[in-house]
Amino acid sequence: MSIKKKLSIFVLGLLLIPMLLLLLSMQHFFDQQIQENERNYLQVAMKTVRNDMENRMEEMRKAGWLFVGNSNLYKAIYDKDKNKLDLALHNLERNYSYLDYIAIVDRENSILVSSSPYLLYPDGSKIKVLAASSMLFGQTHVSEEVVGLGELFTRDSLEYNQFSIKILNQPAGAEEYLRKALMGIVIVPIRDRTANNEIIGAVILGDLLNNDNYFAERYSRNLDNSFLAFSIDGIRIASNIQTNTKNNFIGSRAPHGIGKYLADDKQYFGKVKVDDEVHVFLDQKIFNSAEEPIAIVGIGIPEEKFSGIVSNNYKYVLGLFFLCLLAMLILGQLLAEKISCPIVHVTDLTRDYYEKNFGNKAVLNGRKDDEGAILQEMFEKFTAQLELRKQESRLYLEQLECEHEHQKKLAAELQKNNEQLELNVAERTKYLQESLNELKKVDVAKSQFMANISHELRTPLNAIIGSADILKDDILGALNKKQEKYVANIYSSSTHLLQLINDILDISKIASGKMTLNYSEFYLKEIVLQTVENVKSYVVDKQLKVNLTFEPDDFMIEADAAKLKQILYNLLSNAVKFTRQGGEIEIYVYRREDAAEFIVRDNGIGIAEQDQARVFVEFEQVDSSYTREYEGTGLGLPLVKKMVEMHGGYVYLKSALGQGTEVIFLIPLQPKIQKQ
Questions:
Q1: Which residues have C-beta within 8 Å of that of residue 354, sequence separation ≥ 6?
Q2: Which residue among 150, 447, 468, 526 is buried most deeply as judged by most CB within 10 Å?
Q3: Three-class SS of residue 318?
């Protein structure tokens, strides 16, 4: 077999085995990836479900607070005026139609009125115990509980039958029912507003989940092809599971406790066969007020939803695998030919050299198509001829031996020196490479931080501020007072956070030398008035008095107008923030010989002498009880100092604790440094 064929077979084996191993690894990777995607998808969906349930409980809690806040309620309870209490209860029931269990009890924990004539409130029942505890401690109780229907409604009543769950797949003639209900409970104590807030009763609100598809339908609207079910003792009490052959699974048994247990999330994740479909599911326990597991909320999705994506990806990778394999085979063939050609050429040269130098024609006994055998045979003939000439060369070799030994010593010394030199070069190169890598990591981290801050925070914050501004201006319709308050809070908090991000970016730009000044000539008075106008709303809110003094009345300055406005805004913001209601702020602007002097003075809380040096350090804040009442990052005055110094000026302050603060800074009328 020729050397070319041998090389072709070797290259084929060398390429085929790793590619097959790679294919198996990719198959395993895709299996793991789909399982990871399914788990992540269901965990996000589970958070959505639990958020909806928590929102419903919060709405019930607010409804209870609003109900007990009625000033006429406590009088009706004292008088045991059932007509007024019934009217109040029916109004509550009309506004919150999903409430299934409503009762008003007195201080002796006896029912005054209820939402149904069949509603029960027996001694020792779970709800009555919780109500007694709520009134005893005077605290609102919010929890999810499993309660027997016999403790809630009269047997065979409309409500009792409505919330009973018929268990499916029973033996012929058997009719077994689940007589328990999963319910959200809110208990709000009722206080007498005229008698030192004495507790005179409580209102009890309950929302039963049995046969209630509210959460299931809301979940389906948000997440297509996904199913939700609640279960007690392994029996589904509410569900929107559907298959090709069945669309009602309420009363069926749920596969709890199977699958992989996710300890960090306290959830079970796995697969189960539902009729003819395989569903991927995620179960999570529901706990009552005693932290006992009482029910299960489970979500699932047909596995075939993910199979299409994975199948397409797998086909794509498989096609790519065979294309790569074909390319590798062609490349291996070319490589084998490339390697074998020189060997064939060397074989021919060896034969010619033998015949020319030894005067004999080479007679080969091996296979003529095997270049390796030919080379081996030729070298054997070379060895025989060389042995004959060895005797002739011995005398010559003896003469060269002494010189050869000397050359060996020199070569050994040279080798030793070369090795030491290479070692030194390698150590130095490693040190320089490590230093360079550390510098690169620092630069990449900084660039990544700046990019993430700019894009990931400023962009959504601008969207939030814009949306809040639209709502605040009633462009999309009028808001009620509570909505106006919340929108104002969103707008204020988002603006504050955006300002914080901008301050951090400014500090970073200044530190890295990337911030530049855009010089222009302008009248100073207009800049000062614009800045005062920007904080006018805060001044009016705190009923502050602002006095302005210009000497002369107005004059020109060459500086960066935007940076100067930011300096003044930061100082005025601090003055407004730390000045008490009805205080006074004074602003003085003087023209000196070659600079403009600015003074911002307030009669606020002041700064202790030992803390004054810290206020110009980034992220430092003075620790006093008054300053902790306000938001702040400690970047305002450090930015002021850096921007003033960029203009070639300087800044300092005077302050006394409890007497106010005076900040003075000077900026040259003409720039003393080269404009950037």
A1: 360, 362, 378, 381, 382, 385
A2: 468
A3: helix
